[in-house]
Design a protein that fits this description.
With 155 residues, the chain is of the alpha+beta class. The protein has a domain at 38-140: NTF2-like, domain 1 (Nuclear Transport Factor 2, Chain: A, Roll), CATH 3.10.450. The protein is 48% helix and 27% strand. The protein has helices at 5-34, 38-53, 57-62, 66-71, 74-89, and strands at 91-102, 105-114, 119-129, 132-140.
Length: 155
């Protein structure tokens, strides 16, 4: 079967438009899934902290990633949180600092501010499991003493 030039052009343009449409749909789907509101991350951390303050370690365990569940059974996880709970109990308030996302992983700086003005920063690592963010680990950073001036730009 022979096709005239007009038919060939039409067929090529049709396939090009199908490919271009698929590429655009794929791109916009990726852009939409990449949009992350930091409040999603802050909420997960906040829920775990609230559970810890209420000694509800099973609720805190629900905010932990599958990797944490594999490494630590609930009893050991609860013991770890009890040991760290002393830092949280002395906290006057919690503030969230810078955050960043790379693919299905995110990092959030959480600032535990004591009643005496001291600041204990903690870096939370989170991982996206399905549609939910889960805490994959924490790392305490050197605390700032009360009244310590921070470097930066003043406005």
């Amino acid at each position: 079967m022979r096709m005239n030039p007009r038919g060939k052009i039409t067929l090529v343009l049709f396939f090009f438009s199908v490919c271009a449409t698929a590429a655009l749909v794929h791109y916009w789907d990726g852009v939409r899934s990449e949009r992350l509101q930091p409040a999603e991350l802050f909420n997960v951390v906040g829920q775990q902290l609230a559970a810890c303050r209420n000694d509800d370690f099973s609720a805190a365990y629900q905010q932990a990633s599958a990797t944490v569940h594999q490494r630590f059974p609930l009893e050991r996880f609860a013991d770890m949180l009890r040991n760290e709970n002393a830092r949280w109990v002395k906290t006057g308030r919690v503030e969230f600092g810078p955050w960043r996302r790379r693919g299905n992983q995110a990092v959030v700086e959480v600032l535990f501010i004591g009643r005496d003005g001291s600041v204990s920063p903690c870096i939370y690592s989170l991982v996206c499991e399905g549609r939910d963010w889960k805490i994959d680990g924490t790392r305490w950073v050197n605390a700032w003493k009360s009244g310590q001036q921070l470097r930066g730009i003043r406005s």
